[in-house]
Amino acid sequence: MSTNRWLLNLALKLQAQVPGQDGVSNEPGKKVRGMGGLETNITMEIAQLLLSLLHAWGMDPDLDRVCESKLGLLRPMVPVSFGVLSKGGYMSLLLPTWQAKFDERDRDKAPLEHELPPEMVRLERLTQLFTARTHWELSTTITSNHLLAIIALANTLMSMNNATFVPEQERNRKLHRQSTRTALNWASKAEEENEDLFTAQQAQIKQGWSLLATLHCVLLPDKVVQAGSKTFKRPQVEMMARRWQHHCLEVREAAQALLLAELGRLGPKGRKALVDSWAQYLPNFTSDTQAVSQGNVPATHQSQTAANGSTPSHQVDSVQQQQQQQQQHHMEEDDEEEEGVEEFCIRKPSSAAEMKRKQTTAVVLLGVIGAEFGQDITDAGTKRRTSEDLRRKSSVVEGFGIGNNNLARLTSIALTQLLLLPPSQRLPAHTSLRRAAIDLIGRGFTVWEPYLDVSRVLLGLLELCCEADKLVPSMTYGLPLTPAADSCRTARHALTLIATARPAAFITTMAREVARYNTLQQNAQTLNVNMANTILHKAKPEILRGVELLIDKMQNEMADLLVEVVDIVLHCVDPGHLKTRPLGEVFPAVCRFNQVSHCPSSRRIGVGAKNGQIALYELRSNKCQTSTGMFGLGNSQTKCIKSYSTAPIADVSRLNPMRLARLIWINNRTVSLMLADGSETRFNV
After folding, report:
1. Residue 616 bridge partners (DSSP)
2. Over the stretch 332-349, which tens digit does the pLDDT of each residue have?
3. Tally of CB atoms within 10 A around 669
4. Residues 356-377: pLDDT tens digits?
5. Please, what sign has the CA dihedral across residues 130, 132, 138, 142?
6. What is the SS3 assignment for 638?
7. Packing angle of the helix pair 42-54, 140-158 (nearest 10 deg)
């Protein structure tokens, strides 16, 4: 659809405003003198026109008033006809039959309509009828593109400062900017009141855009039904799935919100019917790993399990070889959409290109359903369940549960293959399909984990994040990302989701990989391996970022794995820094735990584990010893030679690893016990 092209261009122009993303650009040639002597921005005028035409007037009278008074939208005087434009340049314009049949007795229901001429009243009612009901009964393609466009634009304007089309508010914004630039260090009471008033206006504007997006994303189907419609054309879930990782962030976020809202409205039975319709197109990577590694499209379950007239896999491969130069490198984002029906009856693909498109759609769609409505592995064996756990369990789609997990297994394998397959002509390194797989692995990791090689997945994600600081310096610019930067951003987000969802799995897996790295490093010269080119070496900053995040957010889980955490930290930090600086300065987060101690003079680090284990790290020789001989060299044993009674520690401190007691050695004979409340007790030993 070319709808996405002009939507992308408009979103980029809206973002290309002055620093701070204010509502008006300072670029030369972008402003014209409008009515009332006020300079206006052409891009904002186009956005005002489009949003005024796209808004579903008449659905929510209160929101309509907000759109006119606060946002500056213009209510159309006649019904608007919409159409779609294909890639080939053909347009289909759907013209409704406007029959103005109204009961004159209804005039009493509108107190202000008695002041209008009868023709104006009938025209206004006709407009409300069409925008509130008839327009949404025309076509699923029209509904999908319409909602995608207005939600993306509304979210874009909501993220900007003072994005309103009301001239008076725009004048106030300019005056506020000028006064801010020339303000002195002190401010009068009147200026403070003006600042508070301006801040309140900004909040109202942002709330208005938020309400506009919510109406079209969440509330619209119910509003249309309340208006008397019985044939509402729902958004196409397959269209939203194909745009799950669209290259335009605004379109991407709108498609994700629409798809999740539509899946929620379908209910358990509707989601099951949707899964049954698309599961036949899920690529079977388990039996076609060799073919996939060579770049061929794997066979679907439909072609393997039933002779139902579909295109055999070997014919699909031969046709694809003939059309190799014509196929897209990634999931089609601007293709012509098919009309879907509520029973989710999907016609069989008529070409290899269409089969490929259905396969990619099936992977993303089933990945979204599994991530959002699959059964969490932590639910198994859990005795105490919250209401949210029970709600999620009741909505689990068949095939994504713990007992019946066939679809969860196959979907997780497909997503993993898309992440780990090396770049090729058919599947380049940075495509929307690969980004979608990365994103869905992170979103549904607790569902996919039993069927994943966690080490390979984490290393694959870390490889994409190796140059994160260069590719994605800041996410506040709002500018379009390069494909490599977009993949890096998505992989970083997936790593964060995995680490916070399963912190123990993340830490233990990374500690295991660090141990393998250390073993390989000892034999690097013999094996002729350049350790600087390994993923675990290049991704050190990203690993540290994940560990620091877990220490900030999940202290209890990290306290249970403190030895493994220190193993990872000492691998990632620069050893040269620890020669001249204490660990608390090199990586302050880990020293929040009182069980970690660093002696700069002897260059040793001691870590006390929750199970009583003590780990001593010799920084000079880069070795670790423990009291039980689990790590590295050494088999020393610790034993208790004397004990002392202390005051009891409150539960609030005992249960918080950051508020535990701390031992401070005054000299070799005196130790001080410091509690979180500041109390101190000294002992002579």
Report:
1. 606, 625
2. 444 434 333 344 556 677
3. 9
4. 899 999 999 999 999 999 887 6
5. positive
6. coil
7. 140
- Nearest CA-CA partner of 399 in 368, 377, 366: 366
CA end-to-end distance (rounded Å), the chain: 79
- Asked if pLDDT for residue 315 goes beyond 50, the answer is no
d(CA 348, CA 280): 11
Q: Tokens at residue 252, please?
A: 């991407």
The encoded tokens of residue 399 equal: 């095939």
Closest by CA to 362, choosing from 179, 518, 466, 237, is 237
Tokens matching residue 609: 């584990």
Instruction: Identify the H or E element spanning 548.
Output: helix 540-553
Q: Which of 259, 497, 273, 486 is nearest to 364 (CA)?
A: 259
Q: Within a 13 Å sphere around the CA of 408, how many CA atoms are in the beta-carbon half?
A: 27
Q: What is the C-alpha to C-alpha distance for residues 382 and 28, in angstroms, rounded to an integer?
A: 63
Question: HSE on the CB side for 193, CA within 13 Å?
Answer: 3
Q: How many of the other CB atoms lie within 10 Å of CB of 489?
A: 20
Give 3-state DSSP helix, strand, coil % of the chain, rounded to 5.
55, 5, 35
Helix 562-572, helix 503-522: angle, nearest 10? 50
Strand partners, 665: 671
pTM for this predicted structure: 0.78
Residue type, 438: I
CB 285 within 8 A of CB 417: yes
| Measured distance CA(411)–CA(291) in Å, rounded | 18
Q: Which of 557, 563, 558 is nearest to 628 (CA)?
A: 563
